[in-house]
Amino acid sequence: MPPPRLIFRFFLLLPLFYALLLVPWPGFRDAYAHGLRAVATSLCAVLGGEASIILLRAHPEREAPLDTRIIVRAPQGQRRIGYSARRYGYYPTASVLALILATPVRWSRKWRALLWGLLLVHTFVLLRTVLIVLYALSPDGLGVFAWGRVLTRVVKLLAYIGRASSTSFVAAIFIWIIVAIRRSDWIHTEPARHPEPSASALD
After folding, report:
1. In whole angstroms, what is the distance from residue 20 CA to residue 38 CA?
2. What is the mean pLDDT of the chain?
């Protein structure tokens, strides 16, 4: 297990890095949300079948604090879904980055962990977005996909879990453990002890 001073240092730096990552948010909020909307729209277009799916910027006055509007159009009808790129995208990203930056490991490991962490956290972000859209296309929504009752309930449950705020932080911790933590960081292995040679062996 790491020494107490390293554990203390981790819990001291974690809120500091998290706060620093959230401070610039108003500065690049639009750029991040625009990029997430573009990638999610392209991904949903592939998975949406005959439906038209687009993520647009929400009206800053009428739809705040949501910054994104998901529009799903199909022959069966249309759905509008409120979405927050900050809540569902940037918050888990900032959590992963803060956890990795606060981890007391060498920077050679930290850089690799940051790259893999960004890849995994945005895979998670896009997956939760796709689940929200898929539920809108399910038999309980527009009925574009004629799924069975069991699969519809599974998608509904996953979409509900994906929209929960706690899911972002649980996923961030899980990703951090995968990319930044090694077994040797927590388990201290004692060096092998060789038996002392007996007096008869020395003769």
Report:
1. 26
2. 86
